[in-house]
Hints:
It is built from seven helices and no strands. The mean pLDDT is 81. The relative contact order is 0.17. It starts with a helix and ends in a 5-residue tail after the last helix. By secondary structure, the protein is mainly alpha-helical.
Amino acid sequence: MAFGRALIERTASDVDLGAALGRQVIHERRHASDTGLRFHRHISTLLQEAGVEGDHDMLAHALLAFPNFEVADYLRKEREVPVTRLQATWVDIVRRMTRPGAG
């Protein structure tokens, strides 16, 4: 939960240099970058360690689709969704995915 909340906070920041630079990289290259691959591996590993059943690789992709720049920027700017709501939704998704009997 903490990883996603922090990622959403950073993605939403208008003053974070990493986020500003990340927006300049095309979507495909961003996800294939060392950082993108490490984020994916981290989430996949956390899901596995939490005992989540299913395809950890695909579940990690699904989770990381939520806080990506395009989705987060659209929700914040076009739909006026506050960062706190995005973070709460991330937590809700992770809780549902990791609760006993999920899947």
